[in-house]
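Quick check before the chapter quiz. The format below is the same one you will see on the exam, so make sure you can read both the input and the output lines.
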Amino acid sequence: MSTGMQTMILVLCTFPDWEQARQIGTVLVERQLVACVNLLPGVESIYRWNGQVEQAAEVLAVFKTASELFPALAEALAALHPYEVPEIVALQPAAVSEAYLAWLLAAVAVTVTREGVNQ
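Here is the expected output.
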């Protein structure tokens, strides 16, 4: 398990429907801003918007990427997303298996050298 320098994050984002989540997720994988995205349909969100309590059926996307890519990912996600204020929340795992971390870093636009991580 990798518990030293964390280079992986999970980014949560909700979407209004499956098609938009799938389309935007695919673009982000193609751009190598994320290694993988899991789409979880059937999420019901209850939230406050413009002073009112709202409810909506949504799709939750879990993006897996390198922490160094968060600024670029957040910018791209905000630009592509249909919501005025999209949920873009990053969580950092306490530990990640070395093999998974190596795959993830190879799949995104980040290279690891002895000196550190380059974007």
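If your answer matched, good. Residues 112-117 have pLDDT under 50 and may be disordered.
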